[in-house]
Amino acid sequence: MSKEIVELTDANFEDEVLKSEIPVLVDFWAEWCGPCKAIAPTIAEIAGEYAGKAKIGKLNVDNNRDSAMKFGIRSIPNLLIFNSGSVAHQIVGAVPKSNITTLLDEVI
Amino acid sequence: MNRKVIIIGTGPAGLTAAIYAARANLQPLVFEGQQPGGQLTITSEVENFPGFPEGITGPELMDSLRKQAQKFGAETVFNQITKVDFSRRPFKVWSGDNLYTSDTVIISTGASAQWLGLKSEKKLMGYGVSACATCDGFFYRDKKVLVVGGGDSAAEEAIFLTKFASEVWLVHRRDELRASKIMTQRIMDNPKINVHWNSVITEVLGTTDSGVVGVKLEDTKTGTIRQDDCDGVFLAIGHTPNTEIFNTKLELNAKGYIVTKPDSTYTSVPGVFACGDVQDSIYRQAITAAGSGCMAAIDAERYLED
């Protein structure tokens, strides 16, 4: 995982995401999910480009089922954009980079 | 910069075309589309691709093909082509507002899962409505799910989902399955699987907050409507070719597949070639797609030489 990407867990979700001072993009993913792997390079690029402006985190749903359930994740890849502790946008499925950055730019 | 070859789509067909075109020094520009790697990225194990006696996962296979294409100079971009103009040369393709031109175009946009076409289904896609049990089954542990369809892929999805779900119901429009004997037997023998015979879904119930909570089912014999509670709906009613943007630009058959000249990948427009599932409703295998991708690159190379 690139150094700009935060590894999220059920334990650190509140501190890293809900209490974050800058917007957070959370990528819900799993090892067995092909489309998740397909968008991983895009997420890494975004993490590099938005360093300091937005936090980019990945949450492995296999190991952190509570957070996935809490936000009603029923399909991955699933990207949630949090702003001031609540969900501002949701993107379901693998989408081109510009779809993600457009929504991210709205909350920055 | 005008290109010699633009390839649209990166399943086994598009990436094989990219490998061959790149090795022929044509420096192909490859658009990866919505689902880089194509349908194989949502399968688990591929056991019938020659050369992998132990099997290989779909995503790994596609990753290898992409690397192989890039090694020889194929340039891949994670963007989707949204519009084309094949009326004059060089051909024009657009990704959003960005225009690209090329002397030849290879179309390998594949096919996507078919949807019922209901408004409620579209609204709840990703919120309980899914066309990929291997992707989303995990989220239905101890829940009740419906699988729509009666063929082998519906049977496979239903059996896969019993690993997680407490109850799986097939929804099938007829009174017998279209699936092979062996798959039908597995369905009948599985205590977690039941079938709603002679039934079609007319509405998926739920909101994006609640997720799917149930469906309305119509009895195809009597027309009676009944409601069934469930947490998820999986579609397995076949595939439809991704040819929306080529409609009226190329000859398509009645089912929307691109028509190719026999024993070639030539479409109705010289210089535009098609390979893989977008022109094949019969075989639809990774290896046949790869084979036709190779043909498309060779056809394009020869066309450019003439």
Task: Kindly list the characteristics that best describe this protein.
heterodimer, A: 108 residues, alpha/beta, 5-stranded mixed beta sheet, 4 helices, 5 strands, 27% strand, globular, B: 306 residues, 5-stranded parallel beta sheet, 24% helix, 28% strand
Q: How far from one another are the termini of chain A?
A: 24 Å
**What is the tally of beta strands of chain A?**
5
Largest sheet of chain A: 5 strands, mixed
The tally of helices of chain A reads 4
Radius of gyration of chain A: 12 Å
Query: Unreliable stretches of chain B, pLDDT < 50, 5 or more residues?
Result: none
> What is the chains' assembly state?
heterodimer
Helix content class of chain B: 10-25%
Output the number of helix runs of chain B.
7
How large is the share of residues in beta strands of chain A?
25-35%
Proportion of beta-strand residues of chain B:
25-35%
What spatial form of chain B do the alpha-carbon principal axes imply? Answer: elongated
Number of strands of chain B: 19
